[in-house]
Write a structure and sequence with these properties.
alpha/beta; eight-stranded parallel barrel; two-stranded parallel ribbon; about 15% strand; globular
Length: about 400
């Protein structure tokens, strides 16, 4: 278990327990086409109004991305205009932003396997902090250097779903991304040692349907624990040549969706809504407890949502799990619904997921249509987190682990 003695304070750094995420993927999709889902959803057009919507339901903390491919269209030349606008409007609206430097997507001339990838990324991280601190000299700055290294390594390194479009090179892509990740942290902390790091990785459960066979059990367990390779690289437990350190494993974000549990042999997803539950499924509480036991770090549910008609039921189940976790004293600092505004599919841009708190039916106007069932559940969730009109979680100072 890790110690967090190096932290200046164990006070929760977030303005609200409930958070919202805006889809900001700008990668090349399975067909080689560049996507820009922040623009596709109209968040660039309706930025101020989107923040107003969140303020109305008590969400004060959001996840946003800078979109690397737009900021650095030419090597080492940065256009921060859109990011600066986002900073200014978020401050005007009293919204705290957790910044993704690379959500999904790299400039046209880079892939993770390019020999200059780590250097370019680290320089970008440094320039972002310099730019940010010129606009906001004081206060907490929370950064996610690269979102879901595990997933993007698999998608681009093993199944040719995005750049670098490889098969069988998932580890090589993951190693290259973590080299860039750690070098980026190093340069950010040279500029501002107070920068907080929130690692955001998928939280999964991989099981066998042949529990009587020891080899099947061991194989599934090995696949299950591969989800922690990023955390172990970041903290220096493995691949110490990358210069990871426990300090970099600061806040652990877990991205958890309805299809994050599956059977190793068949890749069949375990149903999440069965009553009674599927015998091989685990509760979110159980999975988060495993993460906390392993690392002893504060945790955020950094992404969660469900497409279509079951989204309200999913939000209610996540609310119930959060309350259960909080009652145990595990330092769960927040829960981010991602996306809060509807978004199209990466590979089929004419298909909209309808997984947000607001839907989009008109692709021209991009008008936001509230999903009333989800918003009602969010309001009830907020009420359950309040004590004397203040969120209980925000009053809590967690002891050293």
């Amino acid at each position: 278990m890790f110690s967090n003695d190096f932290l200046q304070s164990n006070q929760n750094p977030f303005k609200s327990f409930l958070m919202g995420g805006f889809e900001c993927a700008d990668h090349q999709n399975a067909f080689g086409n560049r996507v820009d889902l922040l623009h596709a959803s109209g968040h660039d057009r309706y930025l101020a109004e989107d923040y107003d919507r969140l303020n109305l339901i008590g969400i004060k903390t959001v996840r946003e991305g800078i979109r690397w491919s737009r900021v650095e269209a030419k090597a080492y030349q940065y256009d921060w205009s859109e990011v600066q606008q986002m900073i200014k409007i978020s401050r005007t609206k009293n919204i705290q932003v957790i910044w993704d430097i690379c959500h999904f997507g790299f400039p046209d001339d880079l892939t993770p396997l390019h020999p200059m990838f780590a250097r370019r990324f680290a320089h970008l991280c440094r320039e972002f902090v310099l730019m940010y601190r010129k606009l906001v000299p004081d206060g907490i700055l929370i950064v996610t250097p690269i979102n879901e290294v595990s997933f993007i390594s698999w998608l681009g390194g093993d199944v040719r779903g995005t750049s670098p479009y490889c098969i069988g090179q998932g580890w090589e892509v993951k190693y290259a991304l973590m080299k860039a990740y750690i070098e980026g942290i190093e340069l950010m902390k040279e500029v501002d040692p107070t920068v907080r790091i929130m690692v955001t990785e998928p939280l999964v459960s991989i099981v066998t349907n042949n529990e009587s066979d020891s080899l099947s059990l061991l194989t599934a367990e090995k696949k299950h624990f591969e989800q922690f390779q990023v955390h172990d690289m970041l903290s220096g437990v493995i691949c110490p040549e990358l210069r990871g350190t426990p300090e970099y494993l600061d806040i652990i974000g877990v991205n958890y969706y309805f299809n994050n549990q599956w059977i190793n042999e068949t890749h069949e997803f375990l149903p999440w809504a069965d009553d009674p539950p599927h015998p091989l499924s685990r509760t979110l509480h159980s999975l988060i407890e495993t993460v906390f036991t392993r690392y002893g770090r504060p945790i955020v549910i950094s992404e969660t949502s469900h497409p279509g008609e079951d989204r309200g039921k999913w939000i209610q189940s996540i609310a119930n799990e959060c309350i259960s976790i909080l009652k145990t004293g595990i330092p769960l600092l927040g829960c981010c619904f991602y996306p809060v505004i509807d978004r199209p599919d990466w590979d089929h841009l004419d298909y909209w997921h309808h997984s947000g708190l607001w839907d989009i039916d008109d692709e021209i106007s991009l008008e936001r249509l509230p999903h009333l069932e989800s918003l009602d559940i969010i309001n009830s969730f907020q009420s359950s987190l309040r004590f004397d009109k203040e969120p209980v979680i925000m009053q809590t100072v967690y002891p050293l682990v």
